[in-house]
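User: Hand in any protein.

Assistant:
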Amino acid sequence: MRFLGLFLRTLFLIVVVVITARVASPQNETIWSAYETPSDLVRTLLGAAVCLFVAAQIFTYSRDPAEMRRWVVIGGAALPLALLCAVVVW
């Protein structure tokens, strides 16, 4: 149960990072053209900060077995929804 909870939690957070990076990317062609419009620059910087925060959460987890059991239930429900969201956003 601990391994499954950790696995589902990690997959969910990775999908959240991918979705955030995709949504926060500039609407123009390249990352270097984000400086042309301030809204693209702010969205890119905010998205990078969120991606770094969520990526850091992948490596910080509780060693409490009860929390990992909770992630089995949460990950089982949230992971398919996050994957569906990733497919729709992409």
User: Anything to note?
Assistant: The chain has three helices and no strands. The CA atoms of residues 38 and 44 lie 10 Å apart.
